[in-house]
Amino acid sequence: MTLRNIILVAGREIRDHLRDRRTIAMMLILPLVLYPVLALTVYQLAQFLEEKPCRVLVLGSEHLAQCGDLPPLFDEQSTTLFHPSLFSEPRRQRLLRIVRPAELGLYPHPEPQKLRSEVEELIASGRVDVAVWFPPGFGCFGVGPRRPPQDPENLTPLRSETESDRGVLPPDSSTTAGEQPAGPEILYSTASDRSQIAYGRLQAVLDRWREQCRRRQLAARGIPQELIEPFPVAVADVAVSVGRRGAALWARLLPVLLIIWAATGALYPAIDACAGEKERGTLETLLVSPAGRTEIVLGKLCAVTLFSAATALANVVSMMVSGWLLLTSLPQFGPPPWSALAWLSLVLVPISLLFGGLSLALAAQARSTREAQYYLMPMVLLTMPLVLLPVTAGVELSWGTSLIPLSGPVLVLKSFLAGQIGQSWIYLFPALGVTFALCAFSVRWAVRQFHSENILFREAEVISLPVLLRRMWWQRESRPTPAQALVAAFVILVIKMIWSLRAPMPDSFHTFAQMQFTAQLVAFALPAVLFAIIFSRRPAVALNLRGCPARQIIAAVVLALLIQPIGATLQQAFLQLWNPGEVVTSFLQKIQAIVDTGSHWELLFYLALVPAVCEELAFRGLILSGFLGGRRILRGVFLSAFFFAVAHTLLVQQLSAFLLGIVLGGIVVTSGSLWPAIVFHAVYNGGMLLAARGGADSPLHWVFTQLGRNFPILSPQAYPYGLAIGAAILALALWWWAFGWKVKIPEIVPPEGKCSP
């Protein structure tokens, strides 16, 4: 591989793309036009974002005059406004407009319930946003209808009982002497956004009015104001003083915009570099040139990465300039921080390289540009949750979140743009490390795609569904194909997801055990056996159900015990990085309380043996067997472990299951049989359960006590690191003695006994 050939291929691709007017329009012209127009549109629409006045129907206001010395509720200078002292800002006084009952034709009615229905209809129809009713017995401590003087120490609320004090709406509950006096009632509708906004504004006004009533009543009894409010509270926005007004908006917007346009900018150049060359017939000429396949891929990758980075950078700069020129005059916006360009450029290259490699790998499989668009658009959609996750409330930058692909760089950039560089710079390294690792994977995948003639020169074929089903049945082999394994994996995961979402909360261990057994059987075992019969002529071979020596079974038992400490240590590390949260922890504690009511042998059967058999039949049996059909040993092991991890619910479980799935897949391919994996899985699960339970009568309790300490899975304790490392070394030695390192499955062993990566 020579650098000169890579540069030549990259230059050729860049010239081809620059000759295409669509590329120039997407990369340069569109950002220059789109964001100024968008900013002007937002600026013009800002007038519609202003808060509009809400209509408040006031009923029973005549009862206020019968009370004592109350603070003013209505403005003396206007009959349609509340008192200005009840608003935090003077301008907000006009956001509530009072509507009297006479304006709507509402008068005291002999049937109050009918009148109440009329008010509800007014709110539902939108003629009134919210209504407030002051009942006849309205009053507060020491204030109520005028009555003869009472004992000052008697704070019993007073209530009018005269017939003339009845309001237009009936109270929901009557007030008797000695009870809390009747307060105002608010009627609004949750079916209307405007009504909900009006309710919030009116509630704030009544809260301030009630606070004024309380202050006046306590002051009348000689209680100092200092006891009511011992000190004032001043509020200052430091973002204004340090010149970061509106930085939170740009910190959320710019990183997301960068990644979205990096993916979009890599999309069309990759399609043209692969599927477009196939349609034009120029790919064969390039393949017979002196440049090797790897050099061709790297050259195309450089061109795609360049256009991806240029598109993302042009859109970000255009957005910042448009915001600086047009949007900074709005009160809710601030000027964009120009230091953002430096921080965004820091992650721009690895992000563009990642999307470039993925786009090339997917576009290489397409036979036309239309087919390539079908492949690449799901990639963009699948990245959206990872990109939008950091901008949701409650997601903070930590060691765990910095390791999430795409979300980690967005969180780091968000913290940098918000001015928190001193506390967040340490998380930049794990975020970039994960991104570069994914870049290496995507580039390797793209190189492998170009080395496969079956992928580069696939021909289109039209097959009807009946013909496809007949061909699939009569042309079956001893093992499923990778495509059939992929279909089986998705079907199993869908069944598992539906079953988990529809399963009720168990109320006893018997119910939990029944649900666990049925779920394992329906979601894993039965689909695996059924697909093995459909996709294979020899179902036992498709499920890797081959005999094995007794020493491998014994070695699997000892191996599971030796891997126990390092598995528990890794699980504890995952818990520290990705805490499941209080809601999930509370749910797990409820399940654990139910599980604790079962005996040791019931736990071993339902939570160790049954999952080991059913899950191994599905993932290390059918799915691994299908992915091994293409003689891709490592790919089969990792893909089966990936689907095994996705079948679990929690992120911590998925990470532990992925590592465990790699070990189980390695046992199957090196032993040639599924039975050692089933035994290993059962012993490993049983050991974790008994170690977490720590029962003194457990047969394995003494073993774990001697190995280290009693280990509860969800506690901060763990095995000593020395014990975990020593056990891992012994496990590798035992693996080499019992299984070896060569593939022992006859149907997929590559020539000369070498494992194909």
Explain what the structure shows.
- The protein is an all-alpha fold and 757 residues long.
- The protein folds into three domains: 3-32 and 245-456, no CATH class; 51-226, no CATH class; 479-753, no CATH class.
- It contains 28 helices and four strands.
- It has helices at residues 3-19, 21-45, 112-125, 193-220, 225-228, 238-241, 247-280, 283-287, 293-327, 340-363, 369-388, 399-402, 407-417, 421-424, 428-450, 453-456, 465-474, 482-502, 509-535, 539-542, 550-577, 582-595, 600-627, 633-646, 651-671, 675-693, 701-707, 721-738, and strands spanning 54-59, 96-99, 130-133, 185-187.
- A four-stranded mixed beta sheet has the order 2-1-3-4.
- α21 (550-577) runs antiparallel to α25 (651-671) and α21 (550-577) runs antiparallel to α28 (721-738).
- It is globular and about 95 Å long.
- The two termini are 21 Å apart.
Features:
757 residues; mainly alpha; 62% helix
Low-confidence stretches: 141-168, 171-178, 695-701, 704-717, 750-757
Distance between the termini: 21 Å
Domain tally: 3
Helical stretch tally: 28
Which structural class fits the helix and strand makeup? mainly alpha
In what range is the share of β-strand residues? under 5%
Radius of gyration: 35 Å
Oligomer: single chain
Strand order of the largest sheet: 2-1-3-4
- Mean of the pLDDT scores? 77
Task: Report the major sheet.
Answer: 4 strands, mixed
Relative helix content: 55-70%
Strand segment count: 4
Shape, per Cα inertia axes: globular
Q: How do the helices and strands line up, and which of them pair or pack?
A:
Layout: H1 3-19, H2 21-45, E1 54-59, E2 96-99, H3 112-125, E3 130-133, E4 185-187, H4 193-220, H5 225-228, H6 238-241, H7 247-280, H8 283-287, H9 293-327, H10 340-363, H11 369-388, H12 399-402, H13 407-417, H14 421-424, H15 428-450, H16 453-456, H17 465-474, H18 482-502, H19 509-535, H20 539-542, H21 550-577, H22 582-595, H23 600-627, H24 633-646, H25 651-671, H26 675-693, H27 701-707, H28 721-738
Parallel strand pairs: 1-2, 1-3
Antiparallel strand pairs: 3-4
Helix pairs in contact: 1-9, 2-9, 7-9, 7-10, 7-11, 7-13, 9-10, 9-15, 10-11, 10-13, 10-15, 13-15, 18-19, 18-23, 19-23, 21-25, 21-26, 21-28, 23-24, 23-26, 24-25, 25-26
